[in-house]
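Morning!

As promised:
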Amino acid sequence: MGEEKKISMAVIKRLPRYFRYLGELLENDVTRISSRELSERMGVTASQIRQDLNNFGGFGQQGYGYNVEYLYNEIGKILGLENTYKVIIVGVGNLGQALANYTNFEKRGFVIKGLFDINPRLIGMSIRGIEIQDIDELEDFVKEHEIDIAILTLPKTKASKIGQDLARWGIKGLWNFSPIDLKVPKHVIVENVHLSDSLMTLSYKLNEQKMQQKQEKQKRETLGLKISNHNTRKS
Amino acid sequence: MGEEKKISMAVIKRLPRYFRYLGELLENDVTRISSRELSERMGVTASQIRQDLNNFGGFGQQGYGYNVEYLYNEIGKILGLENTYKVIIVGVGNLGQALANYTNFEKRGFVIKGLFDINPRLIGMSIRGIEIQDIDELEDFVKEHEIDIAILTLPKTKASKIGQDLARWGIKGLWNFSPIDLKVPKHVIVENVHLSDSLMTLSYKLNEQKMQQKQEKQKRETLGLKISNHNTRKS
DNA sequence: TAGATTGTTAATCGATTAACAATC
DNA sequence: TAGATTGTTAATCGATTAACAATC
């Protein structure tokens, strides 16, 4: 009783991908799918799919598989997509503007209520009908409108302090695009998008690939040399 | 000999974070650091740091710790940051524009050589001196300039085909921002940035937090009820 | 030298995969 | 009913943590 087995982050991080694949199946009017078939499409094991889903309950039926629409909706619920959140964007540079213009987030219940920047040239401008305000207004706005989430798209030098301020002012979640680790109380949820980390991972993988190819080439050449030596000796 | 123990993705994904922390230490003129102290700053175990680093060699010294600058440079090498790559951006919408304007990538050796879009209103415009070209020019450009990496910031309906085209035209890596899993030959490296997945993870965590708080509140209320009952009986 | 801290082996923990009884 | 496929337990695998001898 009350013994919620803590669900691992590995599982949680896979849920959006399941959701994505089920959404596609739904679009293609597929009504049912087995763990085996889904596993083949997704390139994972059927066992993992069944294990992952059974963390949250039994959504399938023996001998039948899973009803696509039902499972899609259930995963949506698990992800909390039926909630709506009041969102602000702090830092309306290139990336902030891009996110402000991105209407898809609202479909997931993330409604942008305010935009904030320090740059006087931006303040007063509007994006999708929302005026960019001076960051001095941030505290009052967050408290008055009971903002849930702040998207942090500002220079790392400022992100840390603003993140802590927002935590104090009652923000529930931070979607952080700055290449730093925010230090906030643990009741404030932080989800990071570290683009530079992602780029470095890409760099690593490209470099690894390059080295492997070089190695293989060398191996081929050594082999070629041996063969030609062999031939020389023979002839 | 030639028995490279394959390094796990978990380790690789942690390298950029080490690199980040070491960079900060370097900026603060810290010359040496022990695994223990770094572990405290980063919120990981010292054991993990030593294990991770020893996948690539012994960079420290017993009784001393690690030289910050040396370790920073070595991790930079491991990440392949001394390489330079020719990059194009395919899809110059809000996000593509933001990335095109982001100069930090060039510091990591990712040099943007071309921008491509299908939208006639964008074609001919320039960002940081680079003209946006019609996507029809893509094949010739990639082949002629031997482009290494394509950043895919286009609608998911188009990303899949373009990704496959680019693979055929000799691209080495794809930095994919579309919410799909690209199907390309395995010699083409794909690094995904799934913003919508990240947002759904945030949504999950917020929802979980909300439920936990609700549960705790209920528990407190039940407890309060019991106490008041108890008091009632007593008085 | 004595103290500190690495590199590395061994122990533990957790996550993934395999197997199969339950059941639709 | 027979076949299919889940839900779940057990086995395996891999990753993390602990421990400590080596050594600066």
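The longest strand of chain B covers residues 110-117.

Hope this helps with the figure draft.
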